[in-house]
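Notes from hallway chat w/ T.B., transcribed later so I don't forget. T.B. wanted the structure written out for a chain they're using in a teaching module, and asked if we could keep both sequence and structure tokens in one place. Agreed to drop them here.
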Amino acid sequence: MIPGGDFHPLLFALTAAWVLACGIGVVAFRSIVRSAVSMVLCFVGVAGIYALLYAPLLAIIQLLIYVGAISVVIIYAIMLTPAQSGDMRLFFNRQSLFALPLAIATALLLIFVLVTSAIPGVTSKAHGVSLKTLSDLLFNQYVFPFELVSFVLLAAVIGAIVLARREESP
């Protein structure tokens, strides 16, 4: 039982399947633009999962930050780069032969640890943190990391513009 209401397992399963399908689309599409659109849809699905888990603030933050900002920056960077076809030979090399078994082994190890460990159950209700408390922390105590992230995003946009505008040398 989720604090604040009933849990809807069917809606959660559908939304989780949506996120999984979009996540597979991110890595499976040959076109980098289609991969970016699939990533945006994956972010929307994650916001839906937050909403189903009665975390509306996280759902709104997911929509504003990831769908609204990060996705726009990534799509903007893709549009500024000359190669948008997504040649698969650039992505896959000899290391991909080792990556799949390693990923499967890591997933199995994680499942084993989660199943055999004694993780305590939910014993108390979640603390309701207000938006005012979060904004006070973000703009007072954590203002430096907040501004640092904005400079990193600005540097990424400027870097994409420089790479797109770089003249090819003869």
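Follow-up for T.B.: The first helix runs from residue 9 to 28. Might be a good example for the class.
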